[in-house]
Amino acid sequence: MRRRILLLGGLVLAVLAGGATAGGAYAYFWDRGQADVIAAGVRVAGLDVGRLHAADARTRVEQRVAEPLRRPLRLAAGDWSLTVQRSTLLRVDVDAMVGAALAQSRKGPLRQRLLRELRGRELAVSVPLRATVDETALDGVVARVARELAASPRPARVVPSATRLRIVPSHDGRAVERAALRARLHAALLDPAATSLDVPSRTVQPALTTAGLARRFPSYLLVDREHFRLRLFRHLKLARTFRVAVGRAGLETPAGLYRIDDRQIDPSWHVPLSSWAGGLAGKVIPPGPADPIKARWLGFYDGAGIHGTDELSSIGTAASHGCIRMAIPDVIALYPQVPLGTPIYVG
């Protein structure tokens, strides 16, 4: 060690003297011998490569930096996962990093480098990771993840039948946070320690949730023609059942799902232009004894509606010309609970 210091000291003195002496020649040959040696203290992507020849530094950087960055990266979200091959998205430039380390090692005048070597000082230079992400391929991975994980929300809905309401519950949807995924994936690709990544996503609420369904339907009517029953549901719960009359054979109450589109108190009877009406067809019969539509009117389809009747013997039979007849007290009780737009299902 003492001999090395003396030798280097002599070389430094010769160089400082500035003459073409034997010491200067030794300094020149020393410098030539260091042409592919990286200075002490130089790091590449956080890896110490000081005092290594360039070829050895390449091997170390390849093994410690580049190879980990070629390991697969697993993206996960619950039970779903996707393995991404880093090599298809990332190019690590080992030669450029080692070349930069060498360039930094030989930076400055010869005497400065000799003095640094003599004093045992390290260069304290860090060459950053040089890796290029294929941005187009990265966008493709993000799009694929978003496509595979996307789930549309399903709104809650009511499926009516003649006797009951079946509730189909809502389901939340899922959407990938694309910008966040892209940023996190980009960072993970450049992190040798990264092996997996949780996909950032958000819940997408349906337009109508199960909890909101009851508020959507404050009233709902079901007509069971077979058993001559009208059921009133309040907020999708059965509130009351009424006995009714429905249309006779050939003039059946129209089946299907409708909405109450006309409400009247003590309505006149607008006689339809039908053969069964005889000479009354097309006339308007004002409220009174001759008007069969008593007390209240709740229309829902092409002249068909719910109304009161004083023919109580017809209740529980198929006797009307298509309307739904109720006892007068019953239709009066029903009327305020059935606003315009109330669904009515006739089954």
Q: Which secondary structure elements does this structure contain, and how are they paired or packed?
A:
Blueprint: H1 2-17, H2 22-33, E1 42-44, E2 47-48, H3 54-66, E3 73-77, E4 80-84, E5 90-92, H4 94-105, H5 110-119, E6 125-127, E7 131-133, H6 135-149, E8 157-160, E9 165-168, E10 173-176, H7 178-189, E11 196-198, E12 201-204, H8 210-216, E13 219-224, E14 229-234, E15 237-243, E16 246-247, E17 256-259, E18 262-265, E19 269-270, E20 284-285, E21 294-301, E22 304-309, E23 318-320, E24 324-327, H9 328-334, E25 343-346
Parallel strand pairs: 1-6, 3-11, 13-25, 16-23, 22-24
Antiparallel strand pairs: 1-2, 3-4, 5-7, 8-9, 10-12, 13-14, 14-15, 17-25, 18-21, 19-20, 21-22
Helix pairs in contact: 1-2, 1-5, 3-4, 6-7
Could you explain how this protein is built, in words?
This protein has 347 residues and is α+β, with helices and mostly antiparallel strands. The protein has three domains: 106 residues, no CATH class; 79 residues, no CATH class; 130 residues, L,D-transpeptidase catalytic domain-like (Beta Barrel). The strands form nine sheets. It has a five-stranded mixed β-sheet with strand order 15-14-13-25-17, with no helix packed on it. Strand 8 and strand 9 form a beta hairpin. The protein starts with a helix and ends with a strand.
